[in-house]
Specification:
Elements lengths: L1 E2 L15 E6 L2 E9 L2 E4 H4 L11 H4 L3 H16 L1 E2 L4 E3 L4 E3 L7 E4 L3 H11 L16 E3 L5 E3 L4 E2 L2 E6 L2 E6 L3 E2 L2 E7 L14 H4 E8 L2 E2 H7 L7 H4 L2 E3 L4 E2 L7 E2 L19 E2 L2 E6 L2 E4 L10 H9 L10 E3 L14 H4 L7 E3 L2 E3 L7 E9 L5 E3 L3 E6 L4
Parallel strand pairs: 8-24, 10-18, 11-29
Antiparallel strand pairs: 1-5, 2-3, 2-7, 3-4, 4-6, 8-9, 12-13, 14-17, 15-16, 15-24, 16-18, 16-19, 20-21, 22-23, 22-27, 25-26, 27-28, 27-29
Bound molecules: the ligand O=C(O)/C=C/C(=O)CC(=O)CC(=O)O, calcium ion and magnesium ion.
């Protein structure tokens, strides 16, 4: 039997306990929980069949009562003695995409980001469009290209506009977007709505998201229907799903919403989140976005997603949109950091605007934990491979 050492200050203490899907040489992917620098095999310890599967979906589908029960059992387990064969060092396992992604929607919930992009992309008009403060604007992304951290990202090819008309080729303005992703566990039937008060009954947990974005492809294709191929080539997520319960100490009131929102978007509980992110480009931190300034809360986003009667499904992923704070060093996309490429930055020994082949980007995040310390999210990392031409 083994007791897992939890060093003082660990971001993965007993107040976090995120879930993921891992494999070891010789055994297939299955559900594990991270405790400090170890992964606990849940099928081998708790014995419940849904943990022997290569995704979290069957567990997530069972709903809040079951999630809370398992979290209590896992906390007891992690604090006590565990059979040696059920504990693996994080460094010795392979992490997989933690859930089968059903639908994927990306929102646009940062006022700072939306304003910055408006100024950069549409300099002669109002940066925020008239609907922006009345509803959380979003678009449907491509769930089949959601990949787990560590997956390489091939530079996309596509159309971009030039003075001589559109040309086809590798994107020359490849960018990132640092976001949070909310993972739906318990779905809702077609024809029903999820109210803002029901958010925690449906959302299982949170991942970090990098919504890779080819700005040149996007700028040419997006009017009037929104982003499509400029973003659908890859979206990276972290391997560990932080349970919503672990974020209790991170809950804060969001910004005051003025004008007042329509009643289906009104909230009685605070679902702003005090989460600090860091974006590293080739190993150097270039930005520290803050989640707490996000205008729309995740409870409002889910209420909006279902207000027309659209069903929510186990494995649905909806992302917050780029997380940009008010400060210059809090911007969550390189198009903002470099102001449309006009203000290059010196990063890791190079002057840069957009991503070059071989570049690597890592997004990390921490939040206040229940024990007075901090909890971590697993990183989301990706490296750019040259285009297939
Ligand atoms: O303002 C635009 O035209 C485009 C905005 C984005 O690309 C952002 C997007 O994907 C939503 C977000 O991440 O906030
Ligand atoms: Ca985005
Ligand atoms: Mg801690």
């Amino acid at each position: 039997m083994t007791t897992i050492p939890i060093p003082e200050g660990s971001l993965f203490g007993l107040d976090n306990l995120p879930y993921g899907v891992f494999s070891t040489p010789g055994t297939g992917p299955r559900v594990g929980v991270r405790v400090a620098d170890s992964v606990v095999d849940l099928a081998a310890t708790l014995g419940d069949a849904e943990f022997a599967r290569p995704s979290l979906n069957d567990f997530m589908a069972q709903g809040r009562g079951r999630w809370d029960e398992v979290r209590r059992r896992v906390a007891d387990l992690a604090a006590g003695e565990i059979p040696d064969e059920a504990v693996h060092p994080v460094s010795a396992v392979t992490m997989h995409r933690p859930f089968d992604v059903a639908d994927y929607v990306d929102f646009y919930a940062s006022e700072h980001h939306a304003t910055n992009l408006g100024c950069i992309l549409r300099p002669n008009s109002e940066p925020l469009l008239p609907n922006w403060k009345h509803l959380p604007v979003g678009y449907h992304g491509r769930s089949s290209t959601v990949v787990v951290t560590g997956t390489d990202v091939t530079r996309p090819c596509g159309q971009r506009k030039t003075d001589d008309g559109p040309v086809f080729g590798p994107s020359q303005r490849l960018d990132i977007e640092a976001e949070l992703g909310f993972v739906v566990g318990a779905g809702s039937p077609l024809g029903s709505r999820v109210t803002t008060a029901e958010f925690a009954e449906h959302v299982f947990g949170v991942v970090l998201v990098n919504d890779w974005s080819a700005r040149d492809i996007q700028a040419w294709e997006y009017q009037p229907l929104g982003p499509n191929l400029g973003k659908s080539f890859a979206t990276s997520i972290s391997a560990w799903v932080v349970p919503l319960q672990a974020l209790e100490s991170a809950r804060v009131a969001g910004p005051v919403q003025e004008p007042e929102v329509l009643s289906y978007l009104a909230e009685e509980q605070d679902w702003g989140l005090d989460i600090d992110l860091a974006v590293s480009w080739n190993g150097e931190v270039v930005s520290r976005p803050v989640y707490r300034e996000m205008y729309w809360s995740p409870a409002q986003m889910l209420a909006h997603l279902t207000v027309n009667g659209a069903a929510a499904s186990t494995g649905d992923l909806y992302a917050s949109g780029t997380i940009s704070g008010s400060g210059k060093h809090e911007r969550g996309a390189f198009i903002e950091v470099t102001w449309g490429g006009q203000e290059p930055v010196d990063v890791a020994g190079r002057t840069s605007t957009f991503l070059e082949d071989g570049d690597e980007v890592t997004i990390s995040a921490t939040a206040p934990g229940a024990d007075g310390g901090r909890i971590g999210f697993g990183d989301v990392t990706g490296r750019i491979l040259p285009a297939r031409t």
